[in-house]
Amino acid sequence: MLFxxxxxxxxxxxxMMMSSGRLYSDxxxxxxxxAFLEAITTGDSDRAMRLFCHDGYVIDGESKSIExxxxxxxxxxxxxxxxxxxxxxFQRITDKVWVNxxxxxxxxxxxxxxxxxxxxxxxRNGCISQIHTSMxx
Length: 137
Hints:
Helices cover about 40% and strands about 35% of the residues. The protein is of the alpha+beta class. Strand 3 and strand 4 form a beta hairpin.
């Protein structure tokens, strides 16, 4: 009897969660974005790639599509890459699509002034579907 009541309660909670439109949250998207950036700065390409959707990709500042593994590899090869500062702006587009428009100040070996890098992360079903990025002085 108790098991049946527990199952009913779990089903009701799941239905409420699905109907609320909050499958994901600002915190969820923040954590996934942070996990990606941490993977890049610690050289963990496998972790970074696991955050992408199977068809995820990157678009650079010249509107060229880059395969995610190539982008991740290039970022990780940047010697001494660190994040000095970041700001996030979250937007829920649909229940399953979120955008995080970020500004990240990176430094790497040999730099004295951080490089401002706007990056837009598009999440679909909880994974990174696209990253749009360009470099600014």
